[in-house]
Design goal:
The chain is of the alpha+beta class. The protein contains six helices and 27 strands. GO terms for molecular function: transition metal ion binding; transmembrane transporter activity.
């Protein structure tokens, strides 16, 4: 009976406690917001003074959405105010010195200079085809003897190559020799005709060739070099115009280097090169680019450059792999920035320029060549500015939130991603459009 009488009193006590808690919560929520100095235990960031004008309210996750009064955004997030700080430049972000130090923001000057254009590309040594000579049969003949029996044999100028039996050659040489000592005008005219016949047949009465035993004629090497190809054997019958062998000179060689298209634009004829050969460590060969070949490799998208190298000792052989270092003439001086300063967003690139008073500006740029840790700036900077090279992505996020990126001179520049709420110490200048 006593327990039944206590139940109503307990219910009344619970109702009074709930009402007190509700009244205390409403009273605390309506209290004015003070600074962090008034609430030492508060972890919230300092807010602007009460006199600061609220421009609009926005969702930190979707900063493009604005509202005229506080509340929940379409994402269900509590909106925060955007205050006017009296700034006049709507394209900058202002950060106090303490925050700059905490973020580790570093800036580097924009210099004007010509980037080092030295590049290294692979290459292959080949024959200098200007020194290639073909030994052929001008008339029908039979190869009776070969003095050179294998390709890649080194020969000296004037060395015997082959004995051939050719009736036309034999009769032409015999006719020319028979007319050597004539004195009459008619005979001299015949001698001249005989010499012209020898020249047409590929022989000359002045080169020391003579008809051997059995009417054989010995062919001699027109130059020193290496037998590149040997297309006949002893006893073989050859027709007029058929190639007997090819002689390649080795006093100079060609190097074909594969140039990426970005590099090919800086290379031209007579560009000096330095060649290192893996098979000959410690030796350096110097030459120049003779020509850029109008032939782009469809697989590697590289353009071939022909380089001429002197090879007086014959140390360079066709087929060797080499490393080619090209030293193009430096171009004109242009603004350059460290590679770390660039913020690439798809098809567009920008940098963060540090200005006086802790102000930072996002600037759209057009980048050029990169070398040695620096990148050319073809448009957007003039030189002498300071660009942020560390911590620029945090500043870029603040610029995105403030709308500074939407107000760049380049209308195509867009924020890389949605930014979060401003960090303590950062102030975004001006209103969003």
């Amino acid at each position: 009976m006593k327990r039944a009488l206590l139940i109503p009193f307990i219910l009344v006590g619970l109702l009074i406690t709930a009402a007190g808690a509700y009244w205390a919560g409403r009273h605390h929520g309506s209290a004015p917001t003070g600074s962090s100095a008034d609430h030492p235990d508060s972890t919230e960031s300092p807010t602007p003074a009460a006199s600061a004008k609220v421009l609009y309210w926005y969702d930190p996750m979707v900063p493009a959405q604005h509202a005229d009064k506080p509340g929940l955004s379409s994402m269900g997030m509590q909106m925060v105010p955007k205050y006017a700080d009296g700034g006049t430049d709507t394209n900058t972000v202002r950060i106090d010195a303490a925050t700059v130090q905490n973020l580790g923001v570093r800036a580097a000057p924009v210099e004007r200079r010509a980037l080092a254009a030295t590049v290294q590309v692979p290459g292959t040594i080949g024959w200098d085809l200007r020194q290639a000579v073909i030994v052929s049969a001008r008339v029908d003949a039979v190869v009776s003897k070969l003095y050179v029996r294998a390709p890649y044999t080194t020969i000296a100028a004037g060395a015997p190559l082959a004995d051939v039996l050719a009736p036309q050659w034999s009769s032409a040489v015999a006719e020319s020799q028979a007319l050597q000592q004539v004195q009459s005008a008619e005979a001299k005219a015949l001698r001249g005709a005989a010499q012209q016949r020898l020249q047409v047949l590929g022989l000359s009465s002045m080169d020391g060739r003579a008809i051997g035993r059995g009417g054989q004629i010995t062919l001699h090497a027109p130059q020193a070099g290496v037998i590149g190809t040997l297309d006949v054997r002893e006893g073989q019958r050859v027709n007029a115009g058929q190639t007997l062998m090819t002689i390649n000179g080795l006093s100079t060689v060609w190097v074909e280097a594969a140039l990426p298209q970005a590099v090919a634009g800086t290379v031209h004829a007579d560009t000096p090169v330095t060649v290192h050969v893996d098979a000959l460590p410690g030796q350096v060969f110097r030459g120049h680019v003779e020509a850029l070949l109008p032939d782009i490799d469809m697989t590697t998208r590289t353009q071939r450059a022909r380089i001429v190298l002197a090879n007086p000792e014959g140390a360079l052989s066709p087929g060797m792999f080499v490393t080619v270092q090209l030293d193009p003439v430096p171009g004109k001086a242009v603004p350059v920035v460290p590679d770390d300063a660039l913020i690439a967003t798809g098809d567009h690139t920008r940098v963060i320029v540090a200005e006086d008073g802790g102000h930072f500006r996002a600037v759209a740029v057009r980048a050029g060549r990169a070398a040695g840790g620096y990148t050319e700036i073809l448009d957007g900077l003039a030189g002498g500015e300071k660009v942020v090279v560390s911590g620029q992505f945090l500043i870029d996020s603040e610029a995105s939130l403030s709308g500074a990126l939407d107000r760049l001179n380049d209308p195509a520049a867009k924020p890389a991603s949605a930014a979060s709420a401003p960090m303590p110490g950062m102030t975004m200048q001006g209103d969003r459009p």
